[in-house]
Amino acid sequence: MAKENKISELLNDPDFFDLIKAKINKDLCNLKKIVDNINQMRVDANQIENNLMSTVGANSWEEIANFIGHKPLQFIAFDIKHEH
Predict the structure, then answer these.
(1) Cα(42)–Cα(10) distance, rounded to whole angstroms?
(2) What is the rounded average pLDDT of the residues 44-70?
(3) Which residues contact 72 (CB under 8 A, 6 or more apart)?
(4) What is the DSSP code (8-state) at residue 81?
(5) Which of 25, 26, 34, 44 has an alpha carbon 20 to 30 Å from 17's alpha carbon atom?
(6) What is this structure's pTM?
(7) Which of the 8 DSSP states describes residue 57?
(8) Where are the domains of the chain?
(9) How many whole angstroms separate alpha carbon 20 and alpha carbon 11?
């Protein structure tokens, strides 16, 4: 019964919903900042990639790998047999 009274008091408090709304807005603002930072990192990574490609005169990562002497990994094909 005490729990129900506490909930009833909170729901009747005019500031209760304003406080919840303010908290939700603050959290949404923080999430927006995180998303904005991630988007900026994507832009920065794209600029770095473009700078690298133009610096070494490559059109693809495969060309860069060949330029630095890296050989692509060879994957072995497996026959996967399912036991029933």
Answers:
(1) 44
(2) 85
(3) 62, 65
(4) P
(5) 34
(6) 0.57
(7) T
(8) 2-67
(9) 11
